[in-house]
Design brief:
Blueprint (H helix, E strand, L loop, with lengths): L1 H40 L1 H9 L13 H9 L5 H13 L7 H26 L7 H49 L4 H11 L5 H15 L4 H12 L2 H16 L3 H67 L1
Helix pairs in contact: 3-5, 5-6, 6-7, 6-11, 7-8, 8-9, 9-10, 10-11
Length: 320
């Protein structure tokens, strides 16, 4: 009967959690509608302020009261920690204003939910764990719940950075063609973003946002630097610094892009050559672990059998 009571309590807890989550989502949708209505009513003043020299800034504040309470009650109350987490999420491709708060909720939810699920599963087993093993398992899952979201986030950041590094040289070659065909730099970014949307979605998204920022009134230098900060790719940082320097000195953008594109192709060739040179080293591990023992066994087995056959009569006579 004890496990039945625990099962009922678990179901009640799950229903309460789901109800709270549904209510939270409803409140968030309601606040989003109100915020959009308020922004619609204030379009004219905002346009006037932009025309007077103001900048177009993305909203970074949390509007939902519940999420705002979570933000003020956790480590996100520190502005430095909140901005660092927001930057990491942006590098992973998540730029929603409430993303840091949801990350904290998911992290602590995993830290609490995994041990609860483990304890519930033990109640359903025929021979549940007890004593010290049960405590260690729950604590290990709690630690895993705290570490796993960060590991997933770091993996996503590295994967997105590698995708951008892989896609950027092709987009740069296409940009060289566009600029030499007579397009301006802003029009080249728009054109390249449209052309590579299917084959290179990450770089297309980056270029489209850069174009939107420049159309919104942000200076080319600030928009390029913001793109370099969002991507955190060394090749794109060098590309941005080169464009800013070219724009400052007044030199030819087409010639600069062509030289940098040739350098990027050479860098890609060197990286491919480096990976090819690593293949013999990597092949040594399976060679030593799998093939070499078989060869040694095949070479030594016949002599060992001959020795055993030779010594077998002598051992028998000595025994008698």
């Amino acid at each position: 009967m004890q496990w039945i009571e625990f099962f009922i309590e678990a179901i009640t807890f799950a229903v309460v959690v789901l109800g709270a989550w549904a209510g939270l989502r409803a409140l968030e949708n309601m606040w989003d509608v109100r915020r959009r209505l308020a922004q619609t009513e204030g379009v004219a003043p905002a346009t006037a302020a932009t025309a007077a020299g103001g900048q177009v800034v993305r909203a970074t504040d949390v509007q939902n009261p519940m999420l705002r309470w979570v933000q003020s009650s956790s480590s996100l109350s520190d502005t430095k920690d909140r901005e660092k987490l927001r930057r990491d999420l942006s590098l992973a491709g998540v730029e929603h204003p409430a993303a840091p708060v949801w990350y904290v909720i998911a992290r602590f939810g995993a830290a609490i939910g995994l041990p609860l699920a483990f304890l519930f599963a033990q109640q359903l087993m025929a021979k549940p764990m007890t004593g010290f093993g049960l405590i260690v398992g729950a604590l290990a899952l709690c630690g895993l719940g705290l570490v796993l979201p960060r590991a997933i986030l770091d993996n996503r950041i590295n994967a997105r950075r590698e995708e951008l590094e892989h896609e950027f040289p092709d987009a740069l070659d296409l940009m060289v063609v566009c600029v030499e065909a007579g397009l301006g730099l802003e029009a080249a970014f728009v054109r390249v973003g449209e052309e590579v949307r299917e084959s290179h979605p990450r770089i297309a998204e980056t270029f489209n946002r850069l174009s939107e920022e420049m159309r919104a009134g942000r200076s080319r230098t600030d928009a390029l630097r913001a793109m370099a900060d969002r991507t955190s790719v060394d090749a794109m940082k060098s590309f941005v610094a080169l464009l800013i320097q070219t724009d400052t000195l007044g030199t030819s953008i087409g010639q600069t892009l062509r030289s940098y594109a040739a350098e990027m192709r050479q860098m890609r060739f060197l990286k491919a050559e480096e990976k090819a040179m690593r293949i013999p080293v990597l092949m040594t591990i399976p060679l030593v672990a799998c093939i070499l023992p078989v060869i040694i066994t095949a070479l030594l087995l016949p002599p060992v059998l001959d020795v055993m056959r030779t010594l077998a009569p002598a051992l028998k006579g000595h025994h008698h």
